[in-house]
Structure formats: C-alpha cells, structure tokens
Amino acid sequence: MSHQSKLAQYPLCEPVFEYFPDCLAFLVGFYCKPTKICCRHVDKLNILAKHGLGPRTICFCIQASGKGTQPRLLPSRINSLPIMCHTAHTHLSFPISDSMDCNK
Questions:
Q1: Structural domain boundaries enclosing 19
Q2: How far is residue 30's CA from residue 24's CA, in Å, rounded to a whole number?
Q3: Is residue 102 part of a domain?
Q4: At what angle do helices 36-51 and 55-66 cross, to 10 degrees?
Q5: Which biological process annotations from GO are given for this protein (predicted)?
Q6: Lower Cβ count inside 10 Å, N or C end of the chain?
Q7: 15-43 burial string, b = 16+ CB within 10 Å, else e?
Q8: 8 Å CB contact between 20 and 45
C-alpha cells in the first residue's frame, strides 16, 4: 500500500507515517545504530504518545505502516532504540513489535 493510500485510510496517522519510517532501517537490522533523524523522531513520537495522539493510536498507526514489511522488526533493536538514541525518556511511550496488541 502506498504512503498516500495509507494516509487516506488512516488520516490521524500522518505524523507516525512521517516519523516512524526513518527508524525502520535500524529496526530491521540494516544499520548498526539509529540515525540522528530517527532519534529526533522517536522523541517527537514520545511527545505525541503522552500529549497528543496517545500510545494506542500510535501503536495502531505503526501496525498500519508496517503491515507486510520485510524483513521483520528485530525485538533486540526495538529494546535498544531509546538507549541508543539517548532519549530524554528511558523508554518508549508507545509499543513497537511485529505482534503487539494495541488494545492493552
């Protein structure tokens, strides 16, 4: 599904569709560390999770953006993302995984 068709189907997800893809190369194992722009976008998504869209909406948007993505996201990379980005927050304020339950 193209970016435009995803955006049309999930208009609330626009910021997630803009910010999250910059981290995919790290999360699937192509890069050994996240890019600076990925880290900036993780901080923006954390803020949106706490003061905007909320973690559940961001979760659903990440699911929508990642459907059918190959290779799959690596759990070890997901866990290390906030540490490697040196985020102001020591954790992600929203879930990321291949099998996440956004209703929790």
A1: 3-85
A2: 8
A3: no
A4: 130
A5: lipid transport
A6: C
A7: bbbebbebbbebbbeeeeebeeebbebbb
A8: yes
What pLDDT does residue 1 have?
Answer: 52
94 in a structural domain: no
In a domain, 99, yes or no: no
Residue type, 35: T
Instruction: Give the total number of structural domains in the chain.
Output: 1
Task: Specify if 38 maps to a domain.
Answer: yes
User: Distance between CA 65 and CA 84 in Å, rounded?
Assistant: 23
pLDDT in tens, 31-83: 999 999 999 998 899 888 888 888 889 888 888 877 766 788 888 888 888 88
Q: Is the dihedral of CA 13, 34, 47, 94 positive or negative?
A: positive
